[in-house]
Amino acid sequence: MEKISKEDTETVNGEIQQPTSIDGSICGYDSLHHLLAANLKPHLFQEVSRLLLGLNCAKALETAVLPESAKALSSEHNFDLQAFCFHADKELMREPRVVRVGLIQNSIVLPTTASFLDQKRAIFQKLKLIIDAAGASGVNILCLQEAWMMPFAFCTREKRWCEFAEPIDGESTQFLQVLARKYNMVIVSPILERDINHGETIWNTAVIIGNHGNIIGKHRKNHIPRVGDFNESTYYMEGSTGHPVFETAYGKIAVNICYGRHHPLNWLSFGLNGAEIVFNPSATVGELSEPMWPIEARNAAIANSYFVGSINRVGTETFPNPFTSGDGKPQHADFGHFYGSSYFSAPDASCSPSLSRCRDGLLISDMDLNLCRQLKDKWGFRMTARYELYEEMLDHYLSPDFEPQVISDPLLHRNSS
Which residue ranges does the record assign to the CN hydrolase domain (predicted)? Predict the structure, then answer.
């Protein structure tokens, strides 16, 4: 993205203010990576990138080649398109296991005052074009953002938004099943689920659609936030599906939905069940979480020796009725800017540049899944972990008469003479 022109900016106290037409930019750039690339000399940018993004097999992360048809869709429909390659070392007894993986971030299309059916169908139309670009690029596994088929209305505490909820085999799944079959692609579809068999209970759920269009299974969000605007238990509670890993035609995948990324044991459990790629479809705003965003998933990839795909929706969603939150702020009609910035992390501590903070986007990565075992062999985290100690600690912690293991300095509370 080019920097915005001088006449489009406003200066207050010597600082450039962002015009609303590019809400979410950083001083006119749509990502930190682009800001640094445009303002640092090449040799300085190379060194800064090494420190920020790490190295993959001792080299800077390589870009991947995409077909012209995908680039044309990106240009025509104005969505960010980036692609990278995560390599593994060549092995003597195993062939490379290269999988092409995609992440989609997107804004809603129509105002939240439009009819719910029109809102959903408009999102379908937008997403189909981006999924077509993924299909043209040969993506094997594609993950969409949290509750992709609706506005993220869960903080308004208005029950009418429950109308967007669907059964596992509902309209959104059927829409994606056609595309999964067409492109021989596994698709992870996070939706608002209506559990018909259990009294129409509502869940925040990811549906895993196989490359033949079949439903492999589902996973429900394990951790529900109660922070600021994000008090989502009005709509759904903690999930009931544990930490499933889904064995697909292209690898073993899992889904750590949104707020679960703040819980290290949640990441660990997917790893213990054998995940090679964990997706983190999310909806989060800059004021709340942006300093944490580049860190948590990358740490999880390192600690658990798997790849992570982090997805955040983009744009500002304004609702017809102002609402209040638990942090004492005056009532407001939006949550703030969903800052996009979707990215991939690898088990060797390398990561990709992120997608735009301002635009829809498709991020693609070729990843050699052999890297997962290579990093397990290198660091030995599974062998050096003391699970028996953790088990004992957690068992004590859950006891009603738990007392922290604290050893006090015997002189700490001694009366001074």
Answer: 99-369
CA dihedral 18, 23, 29, 30 (to 10 degrees): 170
| Per-state percent for the chain, helix, strand, coil, to nearest 5 | 35, 25, 40
- Tell me, yes or no, if 358 is annotated catalytic: no
Residue ranges per structural domain of the chain: 64-379
In angstroms, the CA 172 to CA 358 distance is 25
Domain 64-379 has CATH 3.30.70.1030: no
Is 372 designated active site? no
Residue 384 region, left (φ>0) first, then alpha (ψ -120 to 50), else beta? Answer: alpha
| pTM for this prediction | 0.93
Spatial separation of the C-alpha atoms in residues 33 and 40, rounded to whole Å: 11
The predicted pLDDT at position 325 comes to: 83
Low-confidence stretches of the chain (pLDDT < 70) are 1-22, 416-417
Q: Is 132 helix (H, G, I), strand (E, B) or coil?
A: helix
pLDDT, residue 217, reads: 98
Which of the residues 120, 126, 221, 252 is marked catalytic? 221
Give the CA distances from residue 336 to residues 28, 339, 394, in Å, rounded to whole numbers and listed in that order.
18, 9, 37
- DSSP per position, 224-270: --EETTEEGGGT--S-SS-S--EEETTEEEEE--GGGGG-HHHHHHH
Strand, coil or helix: 217 = strand
DSSP letter at 22? G
> What gap in Å lies between CA 353 and CA 79, rounded to an integer?
16
Give the active site residue among 85, 120, 146, 252: 146
CA 233/CA 226 separation, integer angstroms: 8
Q: Is 329 a catalytic residue?
A: no
| pLDDT for the residue numbered 36 | 95
Tokens of 178: 């056609």
What are the structure tokens assigned to 318, written together?
């304004």
242 to 83, 227, 408: CA distances (angstroms): 32, 23, 38
